[in-house]
Amino acid sequence: MRIDFLGLHAFVAIAERGSFQHAAAHLNLSQTALSHRIRKLEEDLGVKLLARTTREVSLTQAGLNLLPKVKDTIESLAESLDQLRLEGRSRQETLAIGCLPTVASGRLPRALQRFQERHPDVVVRIYDNSATEIADLVQAGTVEFGITMVAAHRWDFDIEMLIKDTFTLVCPEEHPLASEQVLSWSDLADEPLIRISSRAGNRIIIDDALGSRRETLCWRFEVQHIQTAIALVRAGVALTVVPRLSLDTVDERGLKLVALRNPSITRQLGIVSRRGVPLSPLADELRRTIVQTFE
Questions:
Q1: Cβ–Cβ < 8 Å for 136, 108
Q2: Which residues belong to any copy of the HTH lysR-type domain (predicted)?
Q3: Are 255 and 171 in contact (CB under 8 A)?
């Protein structure tokens, strides 16, 4: 079956920009040529993808169903082509690592800056994923090592500890609790709180440490990312508890960080790699550079 990639690309451009005019400009086409591509695609598929009036363009139900699949396919194809281009640059060496997003946006850039000064031609691919995803990438050999939360049960990993990261309460500086230096978790019983999705490693650590006491707290909001939780705190919506390291790149003006006790909760961050598989010289040098940024 022949796949009309030009038509699919045109369809995504229109869907993302909401107009033929803007999509045509993006693709460097005339509106007539763009219309021809869409018409040909719809004729091939036997369904209408776009509902067009003189004032706006909207997606039909068939278009809504098709759009995410086409975008995923184009993204996957683009990644495959990028990988082929990288492999074709024989003069360049590549290095792949995994890293938690909170570290990737905080400590990692400093290490990469030093590494790049010594190796300007090395291509570094960073998988800034969750702890679970990083473990899978390390195990599969997709990355040489990962900077992640350390799990004691991973007997198949070599582990190098980096830091013990403490969870801290984040509240607006005008909040009544902001005047306290230390609080107990029981002091939060009546406060609306924001927690991270249950799929996140940080959430699991908090839930395990609190046990049944977590049910006594008022978890009013649940978000996917720490940045969203901080934005809600800044707006005065609720309070949140996050690892201190995740605030490395956050503008703390208007916010107050308060230590939590009973229990004090921490996460262990470290570098993990496959046991018995030595790192390449470049990966080992980057590993040493990263360790230095945590000292």
A1: no
A2: 1-60
A3: yes
d(CA 107, CA 186): 32
Of 98, 141, 133, nearest to 271 by C-alpha is: 98
Write out the residue limits of the CATH 1.10.10.10 domain(s) in the chain.
Answer: 5-88
Dihedral over Cα of 99, 113, 227, 218: its sign: positive
25 exposure class (CB count in 10 Å sphere: 0-12, 13-18, 19+):
middle
| CB neighbour class for 61 (10 Å; exposed up to 12, middle 13-18, buried from 19) | exposed
- CA 280 to chain CA centroid, nearest Å: 26
Give ranges for CATH 3.40.190.10 in the chain.
Answer: 94-161+269-294
Report yes or no: 233 and 172 within 8 Å, Cβ to Cβ.
yes
| Helix, coil or strand: residue 193 | strand
User: How far apart are the C-alpha atoms of 62 and 177, rounded to whole Å?
Assistant: 52
- pLDDT per residue as tens digits for the range 178-230: 999 999 999 999 999 998 876 667 888 888 888 888 888 999 999 988 889 99
> 94-161+269-294: what CATH class?
alpha beta
74 contact partners, CB below 8 Å, separation of at least 6: 8, 9, 12
Place of tokens 């363009």: 57
What whole-number distance in Å separates Cα of residue 241 and Cα of residue 4?
49
Residue 209 sits at the vertex; the CA angle it makes with 208 and 215, to the nearest 5 degrees, is 75
**Banded pLDDT at 91 (limits 50, 70, 90):** very low
Contacts of 295 (CB under 8 A, 6+ apart): none
Residues of the chain with CATH 3.40.190.290: 165-266
Name beta bridge partners: 161. 270
Dist. CA 256–CA 269, nearest whole Å: 24
Domain 165-266 in CATH 3.40.190.290: yes
- Spatial separation of the C-alpha atoms in residues 74 and 23, rounded to whole Å: 17
